[in-house]
Amino acid sequence: MARYAFERLSAQDASFLWAETPREPMHVGAVGILEAGPLRNDVGGIDIDRFRRAVEAVLHWIPRYRQLIDWTPIEGWPVWIDDRHFDLAYHIRHVALPKPGTLAQLKEISARILARRLDRKHPLWEMWVIEGLEGGEQFALLNKVHHCMLDGAAGADLSQILMSPSQDVVAKEPVPYFPRPAPGRLELFTDTVQHRARQPLTMLGKALEFMTQPDAAFDGLRRRLRAIGDLVDYAVQPASETPINGNLSPHRRFDWLTMPLDNLLELHTVLGCTVNDIVLATVAGAVRRYLFRHRVELADLDFRVAAPVSMRKPGHARLQGNHVSTWIVPLPLAEADPLARLRAIREVTLELKRKESALAIDSLMAAAEYMPPALIARGTNLAQGPINMLVTNVPGPDFPLYQVGAKLLGMYPVVPLVPGSGLGIALFSYEGKLCWGINADYELVPDLDALADDLRTSFEELRAATVREYLERRTAPEEETVAAQTKPRSAKKRPARSKAARKKRVNGKPRPSRRRPAQKRPAPRIVAVEAEAPAAPEPGAEPAATEPTRVVVH
Q1: Ramachandran angles phi, psi of 271, nearest 5°
Q2: CA–CA separation, 26 vs 322, rounded Å?
Q3: Considering 91, 93, 167, 337, which has the largest number of Cβ atoms within 10 A of its Cβ?
Q4: What is the pLDDT of residues 395-448, one digit of tens each?
Q5: Quick one: 165 and 238 in the same domain?
Q6: Is residue 125 within 8 Å of 145, Cβ to Cβ?
Q7: In a domain, 496, yes or no
């Protein structure tokens, strides 16, 4: 039995380490806003010791939080080893906002913290407790975790480990931590040689499995090669240059906004598309307005978005690391009609799903397990060229979460900026809210607050256009019915009633007919409007101040 313990990173996890540069940190994270009341101490601040004890009590569920990165000799492949000098106080930081503690101040300090790389001499995560928000009534919790440790789905699971669905949970005693012995240089080198020597046998086993079911194997190979071919087509023809693209600076801006999740679900029901389609259509409308103000010609613009797609299987929901692929979605920015933009995006996503385009990155990462690190790092840099920005949507819990009794009010995710792209948008659904986190380069996107306003305006344009279209669908058939009912009938002579017919009366009243009354046809699905829908403003024009429209499906 080995006297040491370590774990090799997968090629996909390692790719985020190789892609990281001083100006392009590769950590994900979130900024949560919580009520301060249950965690206040005697002097009105946050009881940081109580908070640390609560986090320490669940660390045994997150082994990566007490592991750090080491590298194999010669080959240079990263491995996880236990940190023998783990110090929780280093990772949980405690700061305060200057008075009055506004959201603008919180966004500024969050951007500065997020711009800094994680120190690889320690486990790759930090947690910042930022008190003093809204006069001390609230506090913020900023999490930074390196992307090599988890993807978006794993991050959503992590939030439910660190927090609780109950307000009254009492923190348990921490499980004692006994770090495993770390390997030396010789052990790492020996294991690397053995690992590389086993790879030809692994490939031979896959080839034999291929031959046992040739039809299914050839079909799977054909689908993967087709997906890779489509990705290569994008790679050889880069996306259009825009003001949000270029060399990244070492500084960041961070902003967020919140939307009621029901508003998106209403459009999802009425329009018959996915929530992700609505998100991409909203982003398309916002970027269109933003670029229009920056005098960008939209007619021939090839603007592409990278949309991560989870590749986790039903039984692998709790796996550590990254299990994700990517769709490349061109956005129709030249289209002025919000509904036409949505339909165009819907057609693209349906085609990507039909062609199983997510298999491209998944196949390349599977093949990367047999490649040298230098080649993988080079391929990672080349793969960033075909896109303009990144948009990801992670579903979260529809119930409230609590941190040591303090209720989480909202959580705004952070996605890293890929080389050459100065804008990344991440979404997280939580307790009936859709939380948008917008990460941007400080110099490429100097007016990030205006882009946040564009997102709100774009979504309201889409809702208003939906109301107008479905009001027309509702009223048009009724007008035809009214016209048919008011059409004059030709005069016909009423036949004389016979004596027997006149006797068919009961107590002087007409005998009730035995025929079943005509069944009234059920009314079609209707769309009710609680406020008048405003006309969609053109890019560059200030939107009229109106009450938001509400679409209700009966």
Answers
A1: -90, -15
A2: 13
A3: 91
A4: 999 999 999 999 999 999 999 999 899 999 999 999 999 999 999 999 999 999
A5: no
A6: yes
A7: no
Please tell me the distance from the alpha carbon of residue 458 to that of residue 453, in angstroms, as a whole number.
Answer: 9
Reported confidence tier of residue 13, pLDDT bands at 50, 70, 90 = very high
At a CB cut-off of 8 Å and minimum separation 6, what does 17 contact?
9, 26, 69, 78, 146, 148
Question: What pLDDT does residue 494 have?
Answer: 53
Same domain, 179 and 218: no
CA-to-CA dists, residue 131 to 46, 392, 414, angstroms: 7, 29, 20
Q: Print the domain residue range for 271.
A: 214-458
Is there a single domain that holds both residue 171 and residue 221? no
Domain shared by 340 and 398, yes or no: yes
The three-class DSSP label of residue 414 is strand
Which of 423, 458, 493 is a domain's end point?
458
CB 159 within 8 A of CB 431: no
First-last CA distance in the chain: 66
Place of tokens 């249950």: 38
Q: How many domains does the chain have?
A: 2
For the chain, the average pLDDT equals 83
285 and 158 inside one domain: no
Q: Residues 6 or more apart from 112 whose CB is under 8 A from it?
A: 251, 252
Of 437, 376, 428, 128, whose CA–CA distance to 254 is shortest? Answer: 437
**Residue entry with tokens 């992670």:** 394
Is residue 488 domain-resident? no
Q: How far apart, in whole angstroms, are the C-alpha atoms of residue 372 and residue 253?
A: 36
User: Containing H/E element for 254?
Assistant: strand 252-260
Q: β-strand 389-394 against 423-430: which pairing, if any?
A: parallel
Residue 263 is which amino acid? N
The residues facing 24 across adjacent strands are 21
Shared domain for 403 and 318, answered yes or no, is yes
Predicted confidence (pLDDT) per residue in 312-324, tens digit: 776 655 667 888 8
DSSP per residue, 110-176: HHHHHTSPPPTTS-SEEEEEEEEEGGGTEEEEEEEEETTTB-HHHHHHHHHHHSBS-TTPPPPPPPP
Place of tokens 């990263």: 78
Exposed / middle / buried, residue 12 (Cβ in 10 Å: 0-12, 13-18, 19+): buried
Contact 545, 297 (CB under 8 A): no
- Contact 474/526 with Cβ under 8 angstroms? yes
